[in-house]
Amino acid sequence: MRRYLLHKPLLATKIAPLICDIFIIALSLFTAYALRYNFIWTRIHAERSEIILHGAVIAAIYITAMTMFGCYRLIWRFITVDDIPRFVYAIALPTIALSPVVAMLPRGVVLRVPLSVIFLNAIFTLGGILLFRSFVRLTLNNSSDHASSPHGHKRRVIIVGAGSTGNQVAREMTTHQNKNIRLIGFVDDDTRKKRALIKGVRVLGTTSQLPEIIKHYRANEVIIAITRAPQQLLTNVASWCESFGTICRIVPEYYDIITGKITVNRLKEVEICDLLGRAEGVLDDPAVISFFTRKRVLITGGGGTIGSELARQVARMAPTELILVERSENALYEIDRNLRSNHTTAKATPILADIADAHTIDAILTIHKPQIILHAAAHKHVPLMERNPIEAIKNNLLATYDLGLLAIKHKVSNFLLISTDKAVNPVSVMGATKRLAEHVSQHLNSLGDSKFCAVRFGNVLGSSGSVVPLFTEQIKNGGPVTVTHPEMTRYFMTTREAVRLVLHSAAMAAGGEVFVLDMGKPVKITELAEMMIRLSGLRPHEDIAITYSGIRPGEKLFEELDISDDSVLKTANARVFIGKTPPRPTIEVETMCRNLRELTDNHTTHATTAQTALFQWVEKLNSNNIEP
């Protein structure tokens, strides 16, 4: 029958529902009369002509009403409880309107139907139509599920979280056309929901009972549907799933939850950033949005990990123009293409240029007149900069100084420098150049009306050259995963999280600040490697080996990021602080820049000489400072 209907679309979508509804209306009317006459069949038989006429009139009225309310535009397979009101209105409104008209008809008129029959018929008709459609929907979906998966095997899914997010996921699963899913049940720590039914599926227990539930129901997929789920819960669920060979997925983004964009296809597997408990949040602060709205914003390093995310988030705030300066052709092409695909309202201007070329940058500022500069361009790879200190000084320090002077010249309102936690008591060339760049930022703030600030934070998960993509590649190749030292720790943030806090810092800057972001707790690199191996469905130290290569030049065992009251001041944002780093005298900073420029411009200067001079200036300028 189902196969016949599927090959006759007109019959399946138009004629069959109409015939079924007429039959239900007729049966309901007959039942109503039978109850009205206490099942006295002789009386029913005597009035059969009137009953048939009444049925024809009522059927015509109800069919017309259901057509007007769009009941016949619904696809039976996808009818849900949200569609019930249109059937209720289609039956109830004509019944209510018809009743007083019939009551006013004189006795003996053929169309004077007993009011009890009218109301009983309406109740039976509505119930019959809804029950029949529910039966057909279940039949079609069960048949489709069986046909869509080989030998009838389907993914047996458990949802963690029986709240609004879990409800949305369950609803999407029950209405998804190409699904191959059987929803087993929910787990939730709210004891009031125990044994409750949601979308016809039971809450089976609490999250602590999940291992037993997975084993008992032979679940092969678990979906975490909790807004901002605690890190420990994510870690536990991922670990339990790994032990049973069960896939673990998570609702992807908080933004998708609040906008209702949760679909089965958008669920993603649990990633390392989920287990590290970094809450990304949504940039919805009116003060930040208004700061960037209708402004001309220039981003240096616009094709890099931080720069491109800055571009994406600023583009959502409707700037007048978004100028992207990047010296990598491929990176610039990718972010420009991405912005055009996703942020068509933002005017993006990609410019292929090197920030160290002061003449070109001067021309760019003259033409585009940016009001805000977000300076993300920098050399960041620690071991590489140890081998190339002269280039690091030129790009990270002197180019920042020149760009800042040009910003003052062109009356740029706000200038923000992206710094790093490696600038705290630096032992690497990269960290030293960034620490001196922070001093430069504070110095430039005193030279004009432009507001300069710097933002200091740690490692960004997934950025090019960082440990996450490196470990991913090593795991993919079968190992080993190489870690420099078993006790090495680092602070981590997601790119989106870091950029969101950077934009908050830019909006609140009064000038001269070195902002310090709350990076949470440091993570052992060895533990990070173990988590990534487990997420790949493998066992650390058994399936994939972890080896230790030793600390490289310029690396610290522990990064320093002190946000105690002795080192920082609090701001309106609980995760953004201001370091207690007083600016150095103008003469010292200008002398430092002049001295290092002379060294780097001299082609006979040896790398070791430049590196020594760099750290001498760090020691001199930090001598009277309290490092945050």
Task: Describe this protein with a few key phrases.
3 domains, alpha/beta, 7-stranded mixed beta sheet, 9-stranded mixed beta sheet, Rossmann fold, 22 strands, 628 residues, 50% helix
The mean pLDDT is 82
* CATH class descriptor of the largest domain: Alpha Beta
| Helicity, as a percent range | 40-55%
- Please count the beta strands (DSSP E, at least 2 residues each): 22
Strand content: 5-15%
Within the CATH hierarchy, at the fold level, what is the topology of the largest domain? Rossmann fold
Radius of gyration, CA atoms, in whole angstroms = 34 Å
- Please give the domain count: 3
Question: First CA to last CA: what distance?
Answer: 75 Å
Task: Catalogue the unreliable spans.
Answer: 1-12, 144-152, 254-266
Identify the CATH homologous superfamily of the largest domain. Answer: NAD(P)-binding Rossmann-like Domain
Biggest sheet overview: 9 strands, mixed
Give the overall silhouette: elongated
Structural class of the secondary structure composition? alpha/beta
User: Spatial order of the strands in the main sheet?
Assistant: 10-9-8-11-12-13-18-22-21
| Count of helical regions | 23
